[in-house]
UniProtKB/TrEMBL annotation:
Keywords: Membrane, Transmembrane, Transmembrane helix. InterPro entries: PLD-like_dom, PLipase_D/transphosphatidylase. It comes from Marinicrinis lubricantis. Gene3D superfamilies: Endonuclease Chain A. The lineage of its organism: Bacteria, Bacillati, Bacillota, Bacilli, Bacillales. This is Phospholipase D-like domain-containing protein. Residues 195-222, 418-445 form the PLD phosphodiesterase domain. Signal peptide: none annotated. SMART domains: PLDc (SM00155). The chain crosses the membrane at residues 29-50. PANTHER family: CARDIOLIPIN SYNTHASE, PHOSPHOLIPASE D.
Length: 505
């Protein structure tokens, strides 16, 4: 029995260490203490592995192109307050630029491919998920073609999100002269200490003057026509002007901490589009035209994306308006003690005076964000929250559901999107402030991920995003307090267990 008492004392001491180290983050501390109670000693070892990062940048990102400006007097009070409060958190303060809102994958990939093919000097790409499917192969082929034409290309992918991206595809890119790096690859020492820290950004910068960012990765599912996934709703942006400098500054910071891919080849680079390589007697095309045996969606693939084939591949859907706006860029950095994206969300929520519309797929906020939303409603601000009905992984959806009843009781309108996958990350405030980016409302995005978001000040941008929000609401169902109360006992238990694990999701 003495050894049991000794084990208990040792484990208690280790749990106290966790509590002291995580005193500023009680939710995380509680989660790891619970793990330590269930798995004595082993839980503490796991805690050390995943909370002692290596090669983590711990300085705040500040662009060298710092030229602060202020909003003109026609903007409302909340815009002035938010812009001023966010100034020290942003990459380089308030900038000007042109913004084009993109609300689906086909439109985004069309614009992206058009810009990539027109690149003359440089292309920088950074993605959490980069797949080697139809979309991924097509973009890779175009990148290789531009690299062989003399364009300088750098490519960053996340070690976990893009873990299925094959080595042979990386080798093809490197043989063409593309520099490839990985953020926290799944190999020692990163896999032991940086497994939970991820690069969640979706960034492309073309010739240093045009940038893409938002919620869309590279993969067939983002087109909304992948049969086993279904309809996909997302929001992305195309930025031009001086604000592209700030997005490039984010990329440069991540490039420095990324690990170079060490794949060697003795072959001389020769570009053969993978989409044109032969399999048997037939060529494999990334966007088949006409109806195919692959699926009933073959016709849509051909008609919607077939214009990207050959010389017409750069054409996209009818162009939306671009808006000249004021913009602030924000980088989430897990190495900093202050979570920049969380602070940005908190300031926007607390300074709204009339309306707040939030669309987000993973709504698992901490106590401060919850209080900011609830007090906004208490001040008379109309608050609407749009979340997906079906969330992947399911444990994240279960954790998110535990908040809905409390929000509805506080006077917040919660809607569940029914049409398909909702992956957009958007906030609209007072009809003239809008935030779009890669970050979710959860502790992972706030504390563990590299993220990039933009806050824009312009009534036309806010109106365009609000119109899309209203269209999404037409495909959604209001969440009622009765829905929350009528959950079964097993559903309640599973939801609460998922919420306990939310700091690790």
């Amino acid at each position: 029995m003495a050894w049991i008492a000794g084990l208990w004392l040792v484990n208690t001491a280790l749990l106290i260490i966790i509590a002291v180290r995580e005193v500023r983050r009680p939710a995380k501390a509680l989660t790891w203490i619970s793990v330590g109670l269930v798995l004595p000693i082993i839980g503490f070892v796991c805690y050390l592995f995943v909370t002692n990062p290596v090669q983590m940048r711990r300085d705040k990102l500040v662009s060298s192109h710092n030229n602060p400006i202020s909003l003109p007097p026609e903007y409302g009070h909340s815009a002035f307050v938010i812009a001023r409060a966010l100034q020290p958190l942003s990459v380089s303060g308030l900038r000007t630029g042109s913004v084009q809102i993109l609300t689906n994958g086909i439109e985004t990939y069309g614009k992206l491919l058009q810009s990539i093919q027109a690149a003359q000097k440089s292309i920088d790409l950074e993605y959490y998920i980069y797949r080697n499917d139809h979309i991924g192969k097509r973009i890779t082929d175009v990148l290789i073609d531009r690299a062989l034409s003399g364009v300088n290309i750098r490519f960053i992918r996340d070690g976990w999100g893009s873990r299925s991206f094959p080595k042979y595809a990386v080798r093809r890119m490197m043989e063409a002269g593309i520099e490839c790096r990985t953020i926290f690859p799944l190999r020692i020492p990163w896999v032991l200490s940086n497994l939970t820290y991820r690069d969640h950004c979706k960034i492309v910068i073309v010739d240093g003057k045009e940038a893409f960012m938002g919620g869309i990765n590279v993969g067939d599912e983002y087109t909304g026509m992948k049969p086993d996934v279904g309809f996909w709703r997302d929001t992305h942006m195309r930025l031009t002007g001086e604000t592209a400098d700030d997005v490039k500054a984010v990329f440069e910071a991540h490039w420095k901490i990324a690990s170079p891919d060490m794949l060697h080849s003795t072959r001389k680079a020769k570009f053969i589009p993978e989409s044109a390589q032969l399999s048997g007697d037939k060529a494999i095309h990334p966007f088949p035209s006409g109806k195919t045996k692959r699926s009933g969606y073959g016709w849509e693939w051909g008609s919607e994306l077939g214009t990207m084939e050959g010389t017409h591949m750069g054409k996209a859907s009818p162009s939306k308006d671009s808006h000249n706006v004021y913009i602030q860029i924000f980088e989430g950095n897990p190495g900093l003690p202050t979570p920049v994206i969380r602070e940005m969300h908190f300031i926007c929520l607390t300074q709204a005076t009339r309306t707040i519309d939030v669309t987000n797929p993973y709504f698992i906020p901490d106590a401060d964000i919850m209080m900011a939303i609830k007090t906004a409603a208490a001040r008379g601000v109309r608050v609407r929250l749009l979340v997906p009905r079906q969330v992947i992984p399911k444990v994240a959806g279960a954790a998110s559901r535990t908040y809905y009843g409390e929000l509805v009781e506080a006077g917040i309108n919660v809607f569940q999107y029914n049409k398909g996958v909702l992956h957009a990350k958007v906030m609209i405030i007072d009809g003239e402030i809008a935030e779009v980016g890669s970050s979710n409302y959860d502790l992972r995005s706030y504390r563990l991920n590299y993220e990039v978001c933009a806050v824009m000040y312009h009534s036309d941008v806010a109106r365009e995003l609000t119109e899309q929000f209203e269209r999404d609401l037409a495909e959604a169902t209001p969440y009622r307090l009765e829905d929350h109360m009528h959950r079964t006992s097993s559903e309640r238990m599973l939801d609460q267990a998922a919420r306990l694990l939310s700091p690790l999701l």
